[in-house]
Amino acid sequence: MRERFLRRVALKSRREENPDIISPTLMRIIRYQIAQHEPRFGWEAEGKAGPLSASPLGLYRRMELEYDLEKVKLLPPILPGKIIAVGRNYPLHAQEQSVEIPEIPIIFLKPLSSVIGPGDAIQLPPQSQHVEH
User: pTM of the entire structure?
Assistant: First the structure.
């Protein structure tokens, strides 16, 4: 606990000297879009959002440009690819549904549109009887 505290104090001190230093403890990595511009990865902290200089999976810096968070559209945090899901693989979930855990896993695919951004509406198919999210 003390070690974590000391690291945060050291990072805060370095950040005051160089505000471009990024720490996941001080900001969130997001995907966002401004008006008609291309979606991009960025950062969000203290009600502001802005672009990163490169992919969040590599070395990056926080760029000077920033927007009020209300002016950006937050997008899904990942670019969806193939989504493969396994049903009833958690004992507690199977118990909640009063069903047995199958010996052979139930595997199914989800459409790419099932990954949505924060605050986006969950669209239910009209024929839905029971939907979990």
Answer: 0.56
E-strand spans in 9-71?
28-33, 40-45, 48-51, 67-68
87 and 63 inside one domain = no
Are residues 49 and 69 in contact, defined by beta-carbon separation less than 8 angstroms? yes
- Please report where in the chains the tokens 């606990």 appear, as a residue: 1
Q: Strand 83-87 relative to strand 40-45: parallel, antiparallel, unpaired?
A: unpaired
Same domain, 100 and 48: no
- Per-residue model confidence as pLDDT tens digits over 75-99: 988 777 888 888 877 788 788 888 8
Cα separation of 16 and 27, whole Å? 15
The count of domains in the chain is 2
Q: Are residues 49 and 88 in the same domain?
A: no
